[in-house]
Amino acid sequence: MGLTDHEVVDNVITALTSDGMIAPSYWVDPKSGNLYMLTVQYPENTVNSMGDLKSIPVRSALQHNTAILDTVSEVKRIEKPTEVDHYQLRRVIDVYIAPHGEELSRVAAAVNKIIAATKRPGNVIVSVRGIVGAMNTSFRSFGIGLILSVVLVYLVLVAQFKSFVDPFIILLAVPPGLAGVLIMLTATGTTLNIMSLMGIVMMVGVVVSNSILIVEFTHRLIADGMPLYDAVRFAVRVRLRPVLMTSLATVIGLIPMGLALGAGSESYAPLARSIIGGLVVSVALTVFIVPAAFFIWYRRKT
Q1: What is the pTM of this model?
Q2: Comparing C-alpha atoms, which of 160, 151, 169 is closest to residue 288?
Q3: For residue 31, what are the domain limits?
Q4: Same domain for 151 and 256?
Q5: Is there a domain that residue 21 lies in?
């Protein structure tokens, strides 16, 4: 790298291990600060036995006479891996896990539990890499996206209904849906993962549209001169059929996916289960919560 021998030696770092042996040497590049491990390699074709290994001549830079490796070191057989892998200049031991018939998040949670319960030396670092890292990043992104989607839906409804209260009444259908998702995932032993979060986003869109049908039709009846109480009752009774038809069609269509009957379908099962649980609970409660909130608020205004 354009450096003299003395400059290289000045930047070599060696350390002693706990048993007094010299650990591998490292060279620090003064320009970049990168740490490089220095090792000594001898031609393999000249070492055919333990005697050949012990007879290797060694000489330091400050001496002219050579010495035999056996006279300055202890050579013995030990168990070591046949292949030494490195990641970012650090020696690593890779343990590969391929889940079969299990959700990735469930496998990742089990692996993290095993790692947390395992006692390891202070100089050993365990890092979980691979698709799990991308899953965790996407998990956080979906959480933020879910919040932003609800906020954007609220703002769009504010512009459509020209009111800050009506969108809030409409969004009252979302909390029962979230409760239904948690109940369904708990009952089926499904973890909260990327697919289940996607199901939550889709479920929010469906339950909000059902709630819009009730609120918008109630406003139309009131504008036609119908009293508030009668308008709320009539709107719920009339809009109940399309709400049930839309929700039941979605639930029935997602049942095969939620049962995870086919090969590889366990990856998409959390999505279907989230939508099914959210829709069932939300539809059952929306026809009571949304009209009641609408009636309580507009009764105060009248």
Answers
A1: 0.59
A2: 169
A3: 1-39
A4: yes
A5: yes
